[in-house]
Design goal:
The structure is a single chain. The protein has 295 residues and is α+β, with helices and mostly antiparallel strands. It is built from eight helices and eleven strands. A hairpin with a 2-residue loop joins strand 4 and strand 5. The mean pLDDT is 89. It has one domain: Chloramphenicol Acetyltransferase.
Length: 295
């Protein structure tokens, strides 16, 4: 309320065209933009193999999330969100994703949603550690499961309770009055939602943004594709590429800023070793809260 929320602070003095956009497109679905980033597969695989020989459990997801965290440290505009037609600067960097457990021997796999918080100065090794902890939590049982799963189970245990809770949460969230522990638990109140479609042997998709919550960016990594590409010397040849489907809320900043953010991200995909050291400087629009331990 009054522009103050536990997860961010309302922006003032930004580009008026950007600030008026939420009034023109009041919902996140209204403002979805879609694009695909094609990542060179072979350099990423070489980096992953090299680091695994050194004892680090690197994956494509690790590199993508480490690159995202680093970009936010340099381009904090990417970490904004819209609520009640107002643009807010988020005071934490959080990422939500689905963890699959079970599914062996023909069993139906179960899904668990986890949310991880990062600090803008995190290196790729710190990101790797936090992801590993989150996956372990997502595959746990009982009290060792994520808070979101436990809350969902409670809501579904009483007929009509889920409808009541979600409706009330929408109203409170609209005015920034949602209790802090619910912001922490909700995977929909996050900087980024990412889906690894490649782990399911599926191609990239453009996933919708959720009107509930505050997610402004959704990434979906698809399985490797082989395509004909121009090569140095005027030749052509086949290259292995990873498609990354990107869905964004265009209301948080202008298209030129989005282009700048993703251009910075591309540099880290070309050379992930740049993510091994903390950034020399960190840009923020609001005071960043230290990341909480994975729960």
């Amino acid at each position: 309320m009054f522009g103050i929320r536990s997860d961010g602070r309302r922006l003032k003095g930004a580009d008026p065209i950007v600030m008026v956009t939420p009034y023109i497109m009041p919902t996140r679905v209204d403002a979805q933009n879609f694009c695909t980033l094609m990542l060179d597969y072979d350099p990423l695989v070489r980096y992953i193999k090299e680091k695994r020989l050194q004892g680090h459990n690197m994956t494509f997801m690790t590199i993508i999330l480490a690159a995202y965290v680093r970009v936010v440290s340099q381009c904090p505009e990417l970490n904004r969100f819209v609520s009640n037609k107002q643009i807010f600067a988020r005071n934490r960097i959080s990422v939500s994703f689905v963890v699959i457990k079970g599914g062996e021997n023909g069993e139906v796999p179960e899904e668990s949603v986890v949310k991880v918080e990062f600090d803008p100065g995190d290196t790729i090794f710190k990101v790797e550690e936090k992801i590993r902890q989150a996956i372990a939590l997502g595959r746990g049982e009982g009290k060792d499961t994520p808070l979101a799963n436990r809350l969902a189970s409670v809501m579904l245990s009483i007929p009509g309770l889920a409808t009541l809770v979600v409706t009330l949460a929408r109203v409170l969230d609209r005015y920034g009055l949602l209790p802090g522990f619910l912001y922490d638990a909700s995977p929909f109140h996050t900087s980024l939602f990412i889906s690894n479609m490649a782990s399911l042997n599926m191609g990239s998709i453009y996933h919708h943004l959720y009107n509930f919550g505050t997610t402004s960016v959704f990434l979906a990594l698809g399985k490797v594709e082989r395509s004909l590409q121009p090569l140095p010397g005027g030749k052509t040849g086949y290259k292995n590429q990873l498609p990354l489907g990107v869905t964004t809320d265009e209301r948080i900043m202008g298209g030129a800023n989005y282009a700048r953010c993703f251009e910075v991200m591309r540099e880290f995909f070309k050379n992930p070793a740049l993510l091994e050291t903390p950034p020399e400087m960190i840009r923020t629009e609001t005071k960043m809260r230290p990341a909480r331990p994975v729960r």
